[in-house]
Amino acid sequence: MHKIPVVPADSAPPAGPYSPGVRVGNLLFVSGQGPFDAAGNLVGDDFASQARAAFANIEAIVRAAGGDLSGIVRIGAYLKSLDDFAEWNAVMRDVLPAPYPARTTIPADLPDFLIEIDAVAVLPE
């Protein structure tokens, strides 16, 4: 097994001992992404804008590995409040193409942001 770290050129460095993405064969495992820009600043003051910012970070990692959002087959979403569940569904429908990926949505005690998203993508051969 050969693991290849994937780090977009214009992204903030990881906040800990992890890679933003790890490619194994044609699979890409994307670490949890929050609503932060390349300088580490929080982006957005409402749930939808923060979810879109987290998806933008995921997209940057997937593109750096040679794929796009259509290759995402699994999403893990961590919501500060399950009150945002309906809005989470709306953002997913808007950002990701059908057929939609498998998904788990979990309430989480996030510090200063409303959502974190991880993903698994299948990359082109």
TrEMBL record:
Keywords: Hydrolase. The keyword Hydrolase applies. GO terms for molecular function: hydrolase activity. This is Rid family detoxifying hydrolase. It comes from Luedemannella helvata.
